[in-house]
Design brief:
341 residues; Na+/H+ antiporter like fold; 15 helices; disordered C terminus
C-alpha cells in the first residue's frame, strides 16, 4: 500500500547499505578527500576542537584489528575449505607474492639509492600480505573470486611467520626490529581477529547479518582513517614524497602485477585465476604496513609515508586494471559464481 510506513529498522539498513555503496564506489576519491582534510586540519576552524587524526595515533592497532574482524566476518563459509581443496595453486600463489614483493621492494629501493626512513617504508610495502581490496577488484575484472579470497586468506594466516622473515631479510639490513614481537603483533591484530570474525559469522546468524550490513562499511572506513591519520602525523614531512619515491612505489606495484600474471601463465593457470593472482600480488595490504611501521619504528613516523602512498596507488591501478579486464572503467556487474572455473 502506498501509505504503508517502512519500518525504522529497514530504513536504517537501507541507509547503511547506501553509505557502503557510496564509499566503495568512490574509494579513491574518499581517500583523497580524507587525506586532504587531515593535511589541512590545523588551518580549519574546526582545529580549535582538537586534532582527531593525531589523537588516533595510539589506537591504530585497534583500528586494524577492527578491520580484520570485519573482513573475517565477511569471508564466505567456503573460504577455509577452498584453501585446503586447492592447496597447490593457493600455496603457489602465496609463495609468488611473498617471494616477489619483498625482493622487488629491496631491488627497487636500493637501485634508486634510497635510504633512511623512506627506504624502510618502501621495504615494508613489499613485506606485508595482500589486500582484501584485491578480491573486489577480481570481481570487477571477471576473475576467479574464490581463488582470490583463498590467496588472501592464505597470505593472512601465514603472515605471522612469513612477514617477520621477509622483514629480517630486507628491513633487517637497514634497521633493527623485534622479529618475534612482529610475529606476535601480526598474530594478535591480523590472524586472530580474522579467525574470530569468521567463527562468529559461522556460529551466529545474527552476527552474519550484522556483518553483511556493516562489515564492508567498517573495513573500508577504518582503512581510510588509518591512512588519513598517517597523513596528519606527517603533515610537515609530506614534502619528502619525492619523484624517486613515487617511481619506486609504481615500479613495485607494476612489477607485482607482471610477476603474478607471468607466474600464473608459466604454470598454466586459466585466465580468470591469472587475473586473480595478478591483482593479489600487486595489491599489498599497505594499511597493515602503515600500522606495523608506526608500531615498530615510533621514532620514524615518516617511514609510514610509503605505505600510505602505496594504499592509494594500488587501489587506483587495481581499479583501472580491473576496469580494463571487466570491459569498462569500473567493470560490469557479475556474480562471483560466474567467474569460477
Amino acid at each position: 500500500m502506498l501509505g504503508r510506513r517502512v519500518p525504522w529498522g529497514l530504513q536504517t539498513a537501507e541507509v547503511v547499505r547506501a553509505l557502503g555503496r557510496v564509499l566503495r564506489r568512490g574509494l579513491v576519491a574518499w581517500l583523497i578527500v580524507l587525506c586532504l582534510l587531515a593535511f589541512y586540519w590545523p588551518r580549519l576552524p574546526l582545529a580549535s576542537w582538537g586534532d582527531p587524526f593525531l589523537a588516533s595515533k595510539s589506537n591504530l592497532r585497534w583500528w586494524i584489528a577492527a578491520t580484520m574482524l570485519a573482513i573475517g566476518s565477511l569471508l564466505p563459509q567456503s573460504a577455509w575449505l577452498d584453501v585446503v581443496r586447492r592447496w597447490p595453486s593457493v600455496l603457489f600463489g602465496t609463495a609468488i607474492q611473498y617471494a616477489t614483493m619483498p625482493l622487488l621492494a629491496y631491488v627497487v629501493g636500493r637501485g634508486l639509492a634510497m635510504g633512511g626512513p623512506l627506504l624502510i617504508g618502501v621495504l615494508m610495502v613489499g613485506c606485508v600480505p595482500g589486500a582484501m581490496a584485491s578480491n573486489v577488484c577480481t570481481l570487477l575484472a571477471k576473475g576467479h573470486v574464490s581463488y582470490s579470497v583463498s590467496l588472501t586468506t592464505s597470505a593472512t594466516l601465514l603472515s605471522p611467520l612469513v612477514v617477520p622473515a621477509a622483514m629480517l631479510l630486507t628491513v633487517g639490513r637497514v634497521a633493527h626490529f623485534p622479529v618475534l614481537g612482529t610475529g606476535i603483533e601480526l598474530l594478535l591484530t591480523v590472524v586472530l581477529p580474522v579467525a574470530l570474525g569468521s567463527l562468529l559469522a559461522h556460529a551466529s546468524t545474527s552476527w552474519r547479518r550484522l556483518a553483511e550490513l556493516l562489515g564492508d562499511l567498517v573495513a573500508n572506513t577504518t582503512i581510510l582513517w588509518i591512512i588519513a591519520v598517517v597523513t596528519g602525523i606527517n603533515r610537515d614531512r609530506i614534502g619528502e614524497v619525492t619523484p624517486p619515491l613515487a617511481v619506486a612505489l609504481l615500479a613495485i606495484n607494476l612489477g607485482g602485477y607482471l610477476a603474478g600474471w607471468w607466474a600464473g601463465r608459466a604454470v598454466g593457470l586459466p585466465e580468470p585465476m591469472r587475473r586473480a593472482l595478478t591483482l593479489e600480488v600487486g595489491m599489498q595490504n599497505a594499511g597493515l604496513g602503515t600500522v606495523l611501521t608506526l608500531q615498530l619504528f615510533p621514532d620514524m613516523p615518516q617511514a609510514a609515508i610509503p605505505c600510505a602512498c602505496y594504499t592509494f596507488l594500488c587501489m587506483f591501478t587495481g581499479i583501472l586494471l580491473a576496469g580494463y579486464w571487466g570491459g569498462g572503467m569500473f567493470g560490469e556487474k557479475v556474480s562471483p559464481a560466474s567467474t569460477e572455473t
